[in-house]
Each structure stands twice: as structure tokens, then as C-alpha cells.
Amino acid sequence: xxSRVLAGVLVAGLIVALGYEAAAQRGGRGCGGRGxxxxxxxxxxxxxxxxxxxxxxxxxxRGGNIQPGFTFSNIPDGAVSFAIIFxxxxxxxxxxxxxxxxxxxxxxxxxxxxIPEGSLPNGSVSGTAGVxxxxxxxxxxxxxxxxxxxxxxxxxxSEMLDIPADSSxxxxxxxxxxxxxxxxxxxxxxxx
Length: 192
Hints:
- By secondary structure, the protein is an alpha+beta fold.
- It has two helices and nine strands, in the order H-E-E-E-E-E-E-E-E-H-E.
- The strands form two sheets. The chain has a six-stranded mixed β-sheet with strand order 2-9-8-4-5-7, with no helix packed on it. Strands 1-3-6 form a three-stranded antiparallel β-sheet, with no helix packed on it.
């Protein structure tokens, strides 16, 4: 019985390895998202704070409330624009199921390669939904020993979006359906 189980494990491992090799030869992704010819992931980076690190007061809602600048790299072929959804992963206010939305932005031209600190490239839309009401609103964690977790979600899109500035997060996500060619995220932590 033990030898049959071992043989089954070896066969399963061989099948996975062959599938991985076949995917690599086709230029696709192998097991675990890796393999020959795999496309590098879309990246967003900032010098403002490390990914997963503490958000400095300069970028916090109770501090300078300045939108951090980001650079975008490994931009997928076919990307025309970007959208950003910035939200607090830990808090849902007023009994709602959604967490707290701090900022929406879209129609950021792919050619810009990112966003400068404190502003957006020409033609971009800073949505009016969320606590920022049309502008970036930095982390605003309540006083206490526990950190709040915030995420900047970046979406590379195959076209510009034709939605009003007062669109909700759900409306933005709906408008992006079928147009997403890449996605990335950048995390920060904050507490008072």
C-alpha cells in the first residue's frame, strides 16, 4: 500500500513537472505563476515609505495629507491608462460591508509612468467618492496601539474610462471590467 501511495505521489509530481515544462515552452506561466517567458508583474513603487511600512505623517490625513508619488514599471503591453483605489483594509463605518475608501483616481495616462507627489498628470480624474471627496485623503487611524492597514490598488487598463467624477468604487470597478491588463498593490500602516 505504501509503495502505491509513493508511486502515486511520484506520478503526480511528474505530471506537474511536465505541465510546467510545457507551459514554459509555450511562453506561458508554469506552476506558481513562474516559467520561461513569464511576463514580469506590474509594479508600483514610492520613496515615501517602504511597501508594508509605516506611512509618514507627511502623507497622513492628520499630518500633511500629501498624496505620495509613485512610479509604475513593467507596464503591460496594451495599457492605455491606470486607475487607483486607496482604502483602509481594517475599518467599515456605519455598519457597511465595505471598508473605508480614501481615494479614487482614474484615466492616469500610461505614458506618464506614474504619478508625481501631490498631484496627478493632466487628464487624470480624482473621484469625489470616499472620505477625500475629490482629493487624496491620507491614513487617519484612530489613536491606539494597533496599526491600521492601507492599500493602494493599481489597475492597468486597455482604455480610458468614461464615467463621472462622482462615481462610486463599485461603478469604477464595473467600468473597468474587461479592460484590466495588469494589477499591482502597495501597502502602508498607520496609527496615532
